[in-house]
Design brief:
With 350 residues, this protein is an alpha/beta fold. The protein folds into 3 domains: 12-83 and 147-176 and 331-348, 2-Layer Sandwich (Nucleotidyltransferase, domain 5); 85-146, Dna Ligase, domain 1; 183-316, Nucleotidyltransferase, domain 5. The protein has helices spanning 56-70, 99-113, 146-158, 169-180, 185-188, 224-234, 238-247, 254-278, 302-310, 329-333, 339-345, and strands at residues 12-16, 20-29, 32-42, 48-49, 52-53, 76-81, 86-94, 121-131, 136-145, 162-168, 192-198, 203-209, 212-219, 289-293, 314-316, 325-326. It has a 6-stranded mixed beta sheet with strand order 10-6-1-2-3-16, with helices on both faces. Strands 13-12-11-14-15 form a 5-stranded mixed beta sheet, with helices on both faces. A 3-stranded antiparallel beta sheet has the order 7-9-8. A hairpin with a 2-residue loop joins strand 12 (203-209) and strand 13. The longest helix has 25 residues, at 254-278. The two termini are 18 Å apart. The structure holds adenosine-5'-triphosphate and magnesium ion. Adenosine-5'-triphosphate is lined by residues 17-20, 199-202, 222-224, 227, 242, 245-246, 294-296, 298-299, 337.
Length: 350
Amino acid sequence: MSIFSPKRLKAVAVDIGTSSVKVLELDRRGSSYRVGQFAIERLPRNAVVERGITDVEAVSGAVRQAIKRSKCKRKPAIVAIASSHVVSRTVQLPVGLREAEIEEQVMIEASQHIPHPLEEVNLDYQVVDSSETDGSYLVKITACRKEIIEGYSLVIESAGLEAAVVDVDSFAVERGFAFVTAGMSDALRGKVIALIDFGEVTTRLDIFVDDVAIYDRDHSFGGRILTENIRTRYGISFEEAEAAKLSGDLPENYREDLLEPFKATMAREASRAVEFFVSAGRGYESVDMLFITGGCTRIEGIAEVVQMHTGLPTAVASPFSPSGIKASAILQRQSPLLLKACGLAVRGAG
Ligand SMILES: Nc1ncnc2c1ncn2[C@@H]1O[C@H](COP(=O)(O)OP(=O)(O)OP(=O)(O)O)[C@@H](O)[C@H]1O
Ligand SMILES: [Mg+2]
């Protein structure tokens, strides 16, 4: 198993989030992509905590169920670990080294830069750029504690799949985001673009310039807050509150008392996350545009509320479009849930 995969792999993407598992297969036709199979399966509360798998049985059960419902046939799977569990370093190595020499240098660099004993980590590397002019390669070294990777492998294998690639979620988001902006590259050239993912417990900001991620940060905020508010307000269980939230089958006062205030809070969180980036001392005074994704952006009218509050042009990010990934109309409605899964699945599109 490796973090960086061989080319031309046919595999299913398995995105394990806090609230659900998403499985997705992409097919490559020439340079274009089309969604093959997909399914989303809910996870019980606390099966995934702080992006680590705490209940292997529950998560693998959900993966198995999702694979069954989606009718995915591929056995090799691609999963993503959270970038917060990963240490990455980019080092420069001289051009002209043989594979074995690069590996040797990577081990030497890793022993100096990775803050864990090497026998406790899974290590991988990728030559990300080679610049003949200054005589060096840029090599990205990625390391993760073995126990984190083992948790994911166990889930995948218990679900009857084969853990072919363990990716890092920030790489997957970056690849998924390239589909969102496909076809807009001229208009977005040189612009500072924010992507905010409003999930179940985490809101994550990624900043891109010319499709390259230059910053990412997790903030603890997500849709669970609204579910909890529904639960306490109407005296129902968490599961009932979640189901009611999705169906909209709630009393008249829900919209005004809970939903609209939650939308306003999402907008404030978006502002705060962007302000955090601006004050991080990267030399950027603002961002030019905001894309939003994640399950909470399925809430109607959210892009308008975020745009009004932040003052930034805002749109819901979709990887599905004629110039991105081709998908059915039904699937397009689920696009806020599937950005990361698309970024994973593209590595397994064959
Ligand atoms: N139609 C909808 N209306 C309101 N909220 C929704 C809707 N669909 C999904 N959500 C909410 O989106 C959240 C799940 O989003 P998502 O699947 O992106 O998160 P996750 O990946 O499981 O979690 P995290 O990223 O925090 O690990 C849940 O709180 C869910 O209730
Ligand atoms: Mg998520």
